[in-house]
């Protein structure tokens, strides 16, 4: 025997009065919440939302990563090019080593002996200890 299941939604605004039950014809969704409304109650709400949409300004979303707070590398005492030091970068040391036929990995960590050879060639670039 075939069956049909019918789900009726009642207007949340009429039902809260507890007196009359009106079948809902509209679903109104705002900010992840929803309410069911009959035609009579939905009209003023939808009209107000239309008016709001017409004048509302879109709020830009943050796409940048938020600040992690705390002190910067320079403030912690670390060295960086932005802090005004002339510390060499690994890219610079790697390029110098390749130009001087010193074996160096293209991607892995630059070996400490390569760094020492660089500092021997450029003593003024050695960080203060």
Write the layout of secondary structure elements.
Layout (H helix, E strand, L loop, with lengths): L11 H4 L10 E5 L2 E5 L1 H17 L17 H4 L13 H10 L12 H10 L8
Antiparallel strand pairs: 1-2
Please, could you describe this protein's structure?
With 129 residues, the chain is mainly α. The longest helix has 17 residues. The radius of gyration is 34 Å and the shape is rod-shaped. The N and C termini lie far apart (89 Å). The relative contact order is 0.08.
Key terms for this structure?
single chain; two-stranded antiparallel sheet; 8% strand; 129 residues; mainly alpha
Radius of gyration: 34 Å
Total DSSP helices: 5
- What's the count of strands? 2
Structural class of the secondary elements?
mainly alpha
Runs in which pLDDT lies below 50 for 5 or more consecutive residues are 79-84
Mean pLDDT, nearest integer? 80
Q: How much of the polypeptide forms β-strand, as a percent range?
A: 5-15%
Helix content: 25-40%
Shape: rod-shaped
Biggest β-sheet, characterized? 2 strands, antiparallel
């Amino acid at each position: 025997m075939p069956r049909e299941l019918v789900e009726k939604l009642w207007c949340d605004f009429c039902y809260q009065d507890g007196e009359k039950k009106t079948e809902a014809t509209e679903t109104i969704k705002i900010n992840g919440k929803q309410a069911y409304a009959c035609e009579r109650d939905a009209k003023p709400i939808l009209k107000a939302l239309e008016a709001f949409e017409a004048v509302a300004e879109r709020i830009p979303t943050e796409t940048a990563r938020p600040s992690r707070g705390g002190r910067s590398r320079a403030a912690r005492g670390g060295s960086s090019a932005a802090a005004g030091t002339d510390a060499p970068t690994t890219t610079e040391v790697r390029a110098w080593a390749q130009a001087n036929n010193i074996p160096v990995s293209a991607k892995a960590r630059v070996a400490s002996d390569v760094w020492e050879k660089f500092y021997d060639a450029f003593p003024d670039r050695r960080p203060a200890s």
